[in-house]
Protein: Lysozyme inhibitor LprI N-terminal domain-containing protein
Amino acid sequence: MTTAHRLPLFLAALAPAMVLSSSLAQAQPSFDCGEARTATERAICADPGLADLELRMVGVYEELAARVGESEARRIADIQLERRQACGGDTACIERQLLTSIGIFRAESRAATTPATGNEEAQVLSDL
Structure:
């Protein structure tokens, strides 16, 4: 196969990666990155994967707030926010804290709508 014939195949194989790269580059967190003040916020804005994960966390938080009320959800979220901010710019730490927040929000949401079964810890771990 000549180089001229291989080029369309190469471009066809490259297209999905370009689309994925483009969508990741456009990932924005729930907050305005122009207003990012902390090292944690700046790290989330600089990392499309963290920005996407932060958006997922916000979605789970909104589900929690709908079930337990805004003030209780805020109380739970403030604890998680403090832990996440303690990460500074450490992206691995931020990722762990975002995943932990998602798990905690889901568990709290479930606990608010279902009777206790004694298996809550296993369910939280399976959510992560």
In short: The two ends are 47 Å apart (CA to CA). The CA atoms of residues 111 and 120 lie 8 Å apart. Residues 28-127 form one domain.
